[in-house]
Amino acid sequence: MSDKKVALVTGGSRGIGRACAIELANAGFDVAINYVGNDEAANSTVEELKSIGSDSVAFKFDVTNEEAVNEGVKQVIEKYGKIDVLVNNAGITRDGLFMRMSSDNWNAVINTNLNSAYYVTQPVIKLMMKQRFGSIVNMSSIVGLYGNAGQANYAAAKAGLIGFTKSLAKELGSRNIRVNAVAPGFIQTDMTKDLKLDGVEEHVPLRRLGLPEDIAKAVKFLAVDATYVTGQVLAVDGGLVV
Ligand code: NAI
Whose CA is nearest to atom 4 of ligand 1? Predict the structure, then answer.
């Protein structure tokens, strides 16, 4: 078993997940990242994590496939012997007005952004309950708090994650497992690169879009430093929804 603390970050090969993995590695964690498609991005993130001193491995599995998740989490546990921190970060968008939204686009987003948290968290908390220690951070969105035209599927999934976070915090607090969520605003990643965000900065009190690193710092705070915080949703949005 690793002497160091161990974190598992889903969708950790790029964007916000990658920044979270790096932040946790800098905080002394061995970080396992999960990814689904891009081997090159995953390998490059692992190389970066290793250069920080983290014993990192990329585990390729689809978080929407229960069997694949169970096998993937089993492999993480076989490698490290424990999981101290889980970041449920993997997510996608399939935007469009609800009236014309196909059930495929509805289901893809609910499966990837919400059902994945069920699949991944269940085997992980079985281990955390035995450890009597653990911290989970779910990647929600301000859209889950406030809604957004054209994102009914995404808002439903991200709001679902908030209910999930609060309920698990109540179920697992007595086992010394904390469960929190981060609600990012507009963050510059592949997910938002095709959106027309010109002028959005004017509505953000901090007058800029967020960077993956801005989210990673909040995730590390909740995962590691916030030892008496559970069931909370921390908006990290430059003040957008104040
Ligand atoms: P991204 O598109 O750069 O990264 C998404 C990650 O999820 C990728 O690593 C991808 O491989 C992984 N992923 C997607 N489907 C997967 C699957 N089936 N199995 C395993 N991994 C899968 O997006 P970004 O921006 O880094 O998003 C990360 C999280 O932050 C998502 O949950 C997103 O909804 C959330 N978020 C992002 C915001 C933004 O403005 N970029 C705002 C609010 C929330």
Answer: 15
Residue with tokens 């929804």: 241
Phi, psi of 61, deg, nearest 5: -155, 155
Contact 88, 10 (CB under 8 A): yes
Confidence at residue 3, expressed as pLDDT on a 0 to 100 scale: 86
Which residue type, as a one-letter code, is found at position 200? V
226 C-alpha to ligand 1 centroid (Å): 24
Which amino acids are annotated catalytic? 154
Instruction: Please give the pLDDT value at position 170.
Output: 98
Which residues lie with the beta carbon below 6 Å from any ligand 1 atom?
Answer: 10-11, 13-17, 34-37, 62-64, 89-92, 112-113, 139, 141, 184, 186-187, 189-192
Which ligand 1 atom lies nearest to the CA of residue 112?
Answer: 18
Point out the residues of the chain with pLDDT beneath 70: none
174 CA to middle of ligand 1, Å?
31
Dist. CA 107–CA 241, nearest whole Å: 28
At 179-221, the pLDDT tens digits run 999 999 999 999 998 887 778 899 999 999 999 999 999 999 9
User: For the segment 101-113, what is each residue's pLDDT rounded down to a tens digit?
Assistant: 999 999 999 999 9
Q: What is the token pair recorded at 50?
A: 């290793």
- Tell me how far the alpha carbon of residue 91 lies from the centroid of ligand 1, in angstroms: 4
Does residue 127 contact residue 175 with C-beta atoms inside 8 Å? no
Contact 125, 134 (CB under 8 A): yes
